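Z., the sequence and structure:
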Amino acid sequence: MSTFYITTPIYYVNAEPHLGHAYSTIVADVLNRFHLLRGEKTFFLTGTDEHGDKIVKAAEAAGESPADYVDRISAMFRRLWPKLNISHSHFIRTTDPAHKAVVQAILTRVKDRGDIYFSEYEGLYCYGCERFYTERELVDGKCPDHQTPPEVIREANYFFRMSRYQDWLRDHIERNPGFIRPERYRNEVLSFLKEPLEDLCISRPKSRLEWGIPLPFDDRFVTYVWFDALINYISALDYPDGEGFKTFWPAAQHIIAKDILKPHGIYWPCMLKSAGIEPYRHLNVHGYWIIDKGKMSKSLGNVVKPLDMVDRYGLDAFRYFLMREMVFGLDSDFSEEGFIARVNADLANDLGNLVSRSATMVNKFFDGRYPDTQGPTLPIDDTLKAHALGLVGRYTAYMLEPAFHKALMAVWEVINQVNKYIDETAPWVLAKSDRGRLGTVIAHILETLRIVSGLLWPFMPESAEKIQAQLGLPRSGRDLTLSDLEGWDKKGLFSAIRTGPALFPRIEARKQTPAAASKPAKKDEPLPEKPVISYEDFEKVDLRVGTILTAEAIPKSKKLLKLTVDAGGERTVVAGIKEHYSPEDLPGKQVLIVANLAPATLMGVESQGMILAASDENGLHILLPERPKKPGTRVK
């Protein structure tokens, strides 16, 4: 069995987790789930980096000891990941005794090789980055990340002969194009290696910093935070003799943001080479999330907290947006407006609508069963089948790049194709005229959904498993492999196919109600009085559950939609909801209707009922039954 090892950066605990941390970790989770789909044995590592100057300063600012501070912040990361449906194999801390032992063993090994020496050094030191800079690395004399001038520090320290491995590293990168990817970051490292590579200062005197791992050969010094932190990728595998190390190294893929490219692209492979360890397989580098035209920063007050977004809009919507919106390797804009637009278009309109209308049709036309009777196929069926069966290969190629947005675009091409297929084949018309043809169409829809749901699982695990449960598939989630998604005519896999609540309810943008619009009552203001009616009068109102079958705009009307509703029998209902719902959103939704309202003609269309809705400062919302009900069910 082939193996796959994926790591996130171990996150520095000088601040609480934010959107950038969530993105890196969700990327790793998606890749880990994808390789599980490929039938591989995987190991997924994340954790926290807990030593260094910045930790001491953050602890002092919080009025805590460094040990208490790192325990508290590390726990925030550990608690966050399950809430984002992150399924990591191990959570490492650089304060773990086992990690400390491996760091000291590597230091001893590298020193015994003659690659560590003692010297006095004067250089430009950035306390924010906790490293020395050369003049050519500065931008206008300032640290490029913190925009502050570095301080000149002169002190005696231990140094790693990194320059000894410059030629080897350059050759390795050139011979292995995928070693650092995307290519722009490979080229950035190669450009840096054109200049002489300086040796790396790997210690800090205890007179200045005590919070760190002591050097095994000189306890007057602690280990430089980067030489300590990078070793977590092998200490977590119980290097050197553990089964984890034997199984998963060097099949390692690191996920990092571009700000830590140099330590991972230069320091780490040189450290591994000196220690006699094979280098990792891939370094995958992503860009920044840009908020209000700037990099997310605590000092700027534009930090996005992942759980705020999840609580407001849902976990899978959040995971999907991050993976679909960012082109891996490039910076990407983040805004709530963009988030809402993406979720409404892709998830509510395209995917959610497809699942809802498909399950509704199977229940209406075939009592929730895969069609027993099918007629001959037509070219339109063969085209959908070919695209659905070819999707697994296209998706796999993009995931291996990695190009997550392209993988999702490929899935959505098929989702959009099957939605168009439904519109063009019109199963509701076939139900009245050609049962065999109807069976063929429904079977093609179900087979496509089976494939799509499996490929969505790495990105949106909960939603994919809900779709698979609605389809009555015997295996779902991590029990599936890509080979299970191949093939066609899998009737035996489908059991009872059922409807369910909307996977992705449409998100209404938060906005102020225009002054001219009707205003809701204020908190302490009584609602407008209505005439008191008797129970007998109320009993005359026939409220029923209905399922919307079709929806279309009424020409020349800004507010009205013409709906075909199954409320125990099909009827036409005209509803003034066009400003709040698109026609594509509605088929498959269940609504509550007044079924015995006298017919009325609106814009030339006779309406045989009224849909119940509620309106407040957040807009108009259709009232939905708490759980799916049989069309025509009486509301009591």
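Confidence is low (pLDDT under 50) at residues 511-529. Residues 535-622 form a domain with the OB fold (Dihydrolipoamide Acetyltransferase, E2P) fold (CATH 2.40.50.140).

Let me know what you think.
H.
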